[in-house]
Design goal:
The chain is an alpha/beta fold and about 375 residues long. Helix content is about 35%, strand content about 25%.
Length: about 375
């Protein structure tokens, strides 16, 4: 049995205000081409189809067209809701979609109702555990209010079904499993201060197709092969070292799993550069980053004039710029003490602020403007008192 595992499409998401919908549409077309080329038996999508509970019109259209194309190609697709999705909205029309081979699993009622596929070695049961908010799901599952408890209760139902109908088994789930390495672009799902659950909850099945964490990785600690496919696109600079991919999963007749990572299309590479503005603009080695989505840290002692505009002349795809002067900054404790001592003098507080943000002491002309504004404000207060 050959399966293609993907997750965390986050359709409708932007990268630092850059619209990604065209890149996402390109990925979905590529995904269909890979499914056909690799002759897969099904595609597994482990949640976060959309980036928000109420997705944009473009995001809905993108998903609808992609699923239509998979149905036309007669490639079954199993999708679950993630923590970014609205289970109700994503699950709308699930019964109708299932007729076309598109299996939308968003309800706890479907936990022990597998999508069953068959090959020469027999049946493969594909179970789906959508993202389960413990605040809601613990009542339905009659268990404790925690991620571990709701996943364990879900797996108890699945294992009971496997006792009645043996076969090779796959579970889709959207969760933070202990040992996984997060990035800063995933939404926090902690309940009671705990966001993760052990991989051992999945013991007893062959492959677990995870979603939620955006880096492709395998998680140990279970008798099953437990893997995050990762997101197909990078969504933050914390993912600069990620190699985005989907996972080709082959399961033999004995339930042994072989995994192959297939790199996904990259619309633009990510890069970080650091230095003085004039040096960055002149450095010939930085030609490699002229077409990248760029995070720039300027280290000039004084904030340059119009830095973003000047950078964009060479690096048109810069999306983040921050200023960290090379000059030694005042220690935080000492700086706070000085500000408290000067709190009675708005001009001095303003001077300190300008020195911090500009990386150097403000000029006499700048301070004259500050003093003039402070005086006008003081007179206004006295007049209205």
């Amino acid at each position: 049995m050959r399966l293609l595992h993907t997750s965390d499409w986050h359709l409708g998401r932007a990268f630092h205000r850059v619209d990604l919908i065209d890149a996402q549409r390109e990925f979905l077309a590529w995904l269909l081409a890979q499914a056909l080329e690799q002759n897969v038996d099904a595609v597994l999508v482990s949640g976060d189809i959309f980036d928000r509970a109420v997705p944009s019109v473009d995001a809905v259209r993108c998903a609808s067209e992609a699923l239509r194309d998979f149905a036309i190609a007669k490639i079954p697709v199993v999708l679950i809701a993630g923590n970014h999705d609205s289970a109700t909205r994503l699950g709308f029309g699930a019964e109708l979609a299932e007729v076309s081979g598109i299996h939308l699993r968003t309800r706890t009622a479907d936990l022990d109702r597998p999508v069953t596929l068959a090959d020469d070695d027999g049946d493969v049961h594909i179970f789906a555990i959508p993202y389960l908010d413990p605040d809601v799901a613990h009542t339905e599952l009659a268990c404790a209010r925690s991620h571990t408890a709701v996943l364990a209760a879900s797996m108890d139902r699945i294992r009971s079904q496997l006792v009645r109908n043996p076969g090779r088994s796959v579970v889709l789930a959207h969760a933070f499993i202990t040992g996984g390495q997060p990035s800063d672009s995933e939404r926090d799902i902690r309940v009671g201060g705990v966001g993760d659950a052990p991989a051992s909850v999945f013991d007893g099945v062959d492959y677990v197709a995870l979603g939620h964490l955006h880096g492709a990785q395998r998680v140990t600690g279970s008798t099953a092969v437990v893997r995050y496919s990762g997101s197909p696109l990078a969504f933050s600079f914390s993912e600069i070292n990620h190699r985005t991919s989907v996972t080709l999963v082959d399961i033999d007749g004995a339930g042994r799993v072989e995994q192959t990572l297939i790199p996904t299309p990259v619309p633009r590479p990510l890069a970080r550069i650091v230095g003085h503005l004039d040096d960055l603009l002149a450095d010939p080695d930085l030609i490699l980053h002229e077409e990248a989505w760029l995070h720039v840290t300027l280290t000039d002692d004084r904030r340059p004039d119009a830095p973003m505009e000047r950078l964009r002349e060479r690096f048109p795809h810069i999306v983040v710029m921050e200023f960290r002067p090379d000059s030694a900054q005042v220690a935080v404790d000492a700086d706070l003490a000085r500000l408290r001592a000067a709190a009675h003098d708005p001009v001095e507080v303003s001077r300190s602020f300008l020195a911090y943000t500009g990386g150097d002491e403000p000029t006499q002309d700048e301070m004259a403007v500050v003093a003039q504004v402070e005086e006008l404000a003081r007179r206004e207060r006295e007049t209205s008192a």
